[in-house]
UniProtKB/TrEMBL annotation:
Organism: Anditalea andensis
Every Glycosyl hydrolase family 32 N-terminal domain range: 46-346
Stored InterPro entries: ConA-like_dom_sf, Glyco_hydro_32, Glyco_hydro_32_AS, Glyco_hydro_32_C, Glyco_hydro_32_N, Glyco_hydro_beta-prop_sf
Family as reported in the entry's similarity comment: Belongs to the glycosyl hydrolase 32 family.
Keyword flag Hydrolase: yes
Taxonomic path: Bacteria, Pseudomonadati, Bacteroidota, Cytophagia, Cytophagales
Protein name: Glycosyl hydrolase family 32
Single GO biological process annotation from the record: sucrose catabolic process
Domain of life: Bacteria
Cellular component GO terms, alphabetical: cytoplasm
Pfam families (alphabetical): Glyco_hydro_32C, Glyco_hydro_32N
Keyword entries, A-Z: Glycosidase, Hydrolase
Glycosyl hydrolase family 32 C-terminal domain boundaries: 394-492
GO terms for MF: sucrose alpha-glucosidase activity
Length: 510
């Protein structure tokens, strides 16, 4: 959640339109999406609100066959404004149905970022019927009184919500940046654990009932990227490919990301119910592209599923308010599965699109065992996936998406310097902000002479996943026409033939 320059809006204004709601109603606002799907830059399979502004994903929880995605939402314009919680529901993490607004600003302030849990043991005492209560833990932001943590709850599978009459449950100790609670159940200690962003560190609190919180420890002093305020933390256990698990701490930062503006750093380590102890002092980056921020994981994923699922806000605070869309602004990344992978003695958090997305793809063309430059015709669709398998690399290779206007995106592998570049400087509309026409770079931990790579393209984005998500870059792009060809440019010093390129058409859900 970003503190915006728009805070000059007097608080009395939000009270007049929010009606100080303590209880939400439930409606589905999907009607009309068939008309907006043809808007310039409207994604075909990434979630966007039908209209107006969206940023951080919030309150992500799974319950009774449904994935809930709440998000920071301003219903009265396409730039950041007084925050509400919007809401969408999916059964497959790809096809999202937008719901009505669930949390409105009130006398305690705007509704900033937070999380949600399924309170199976009714620890907070909110249960009134047969359903397990869903409890949202969020930041109230008041321009004069500061930031506090509050609760809301639902007893009807997330359709309607009521704010707790005892709010706030965690008062402000006199700190300006005191926000974005991510809460999870810690089975070993039988307590709820809250990770809270406090200036440029993370405070860890515990509670038995979600109402009374005790400060347990602090993480982050003197380590990690410190270019800006820390936001949207997440603390979770992640199983490794070697059979061992580690705890992971996600922390979003703005500014201070390696390619400018906002981004998400992480640490791996151990957590004993009180203290998170990192195994490294220097930050790692979840995504080296410019446009994956404030992402966190879903709560209450069933053990039989076993996945750790993630989604992020696909934008950057450098230019988020001025991207060239019309009735709406901002999309979420594709939902991703996180995995812990050992690479060169390090624990790396890898990410790939969820399997449900891959199951929706339809193969349309392929090229096999080529040993020279290739140009593959594309169908001119807004949404598609290019999947490259067993591609041999030399010292310098490039892969390029091009349209009939000459607009292009280039992914370049520079093994000599152990870097990958994503160049969107000629991708279409790039002049709305000086930082957008950029060449983004990602360091490699070692030279890569054989790769797998998935390139996920939608109407205004490209997501690049290399070697099963060990290296990831996400970037918005605003090409004015669909891409019509994919060019592969190979160096002569490669060893062995290249493998296979497959092109898949992605579903046009929007």
């Amino acid at each position: 959640m970003k503190l915006s320059k728009l805070f000059y809006i007097p608080f009395i204004i939000i009270s007049s339109y929010s009606c100080s709601q303590t209880k939400s109603n439930s409606t589905n606002v999907e009607d009309g999406y068939s008309e907006v799907s043809t808007e310039p830059f409207r994604p075909q399979f990434h979630f966007t609100p039908k209209e107006n502004w969206m940023n951080d994903p919030n309150g992500m929880v799974y319950y009774d066959g449904e994935y809930h995605l709440f998000y920071q939402y301003y219903p009265d314009g396409t730039e950041w404004g007084p925050m509400h919680w919007g809401h969408a529901i999916s059964t497959d993490l790809v096809d999202w149905e937008e719901q009505d607004i669930k949390l409105y600003p009130d006398e305690l302030g705007y509704i900033f970022s937070g999380s949600a849990v399924a309170d199976h043991h009714n620890t907070a005492g909110f249960k009134t019927g047969e359903e397990t209560p869903l409890v949202a833990i969020f930041t109230h932001h008041h321009e004069e009184k500061g930031q506090v943590q509050s609760l809301a709850y639902s007893n009807d599978k997330g359709r309607t919500w009521e704010k707790y009459e005892g709010n706030p449950v965690l008062p402000n100790p006199g700190i300006a940046d005191f926000r974005d609670p991510k809460v999870s159940w810690h089975e070993q200690s039988e307590k709820w654990i809250m990770a809270l962003a406090v200036k440029d560190v993370i405070h860890l609190y515990s509670s038995k009932d979600l109402k009374d919180w005790s400060l347990e420890s602090e993480f982050g002093k003197g380590i990690g990227a410190k270019g800006g305020v820390w936001e949207c933390p997440d603390l979770f256990e992640l199983a490794g490919d070697d059979g061992q698990s580690k705890w992971v701490m996600f922390i979003s930062i703005n500014p201070g990301a390696p390619n400018g503006g906002s981004g998400t750093q992480y640490f791996t380590g151990d957590f004993d119910g009180i203290t998170f102890t990192p195994e490294h002092q220097e930050e790692k980056w979840l995504d080296w592209g410019t446009d994956n921020y404030a992402g966190v994981t879903w709560a209450n994923i069933p053990d039989k599923d076993g996945r750790t699922l993630f989604i992020g806000w696909m934008s950057n605070w450098d230019y988020a308010n001025i991207t060239p869309t019309q009735k709406w602004r901002s999309a979420m990344t594709i939902a991703r599965e996180l995995k812990l992978v050992r690479d060169g003695g390090e624990n790396i958090v890898a990410s790939l699109p969820v399997g449900e997305f891959y199951e929706m793809l339809e193969e349309v063309t392929s090229a096999e065992s080529f040993d020279k430059d290739q140009t593959i015709a594309l169908a001119g669709k807004k949404g598609f996936v290019i999947s490259l398998k067993d591609i041999s690399l030399g010292e310098n290779e490039s892969f390029k998406l091009v349209n009939e206007s000459g607009e292009n995106i280039t992914i370049q592998f520079d093994n000599a310097n152990q870097k990958v570049y994503l160049d969107r400087s000629q991708s279409g509309k790039v002049d709305f902000h000086e930082a957008f026409a950029s060449v983004q770079e990602m360091p490699l931990r070692k030279k890569l002479y054989k790769i797998n790579m998935d390139i996920v393209v939608d109407a205004s984005s490209v997501e690049v996943f290399i070697n099963e998500g060990m290296y990831v870059m996400t970037a918005q792009v605003f090409n004015t026409n669909p891409f019509t060809r994919f060019e592969v440019h190979l160096s002569e010093n490669r060893e062995g033939d290249s493998g296979m390129v497959r092109i898949y058409e992605a579903p046009a859900i929007r």
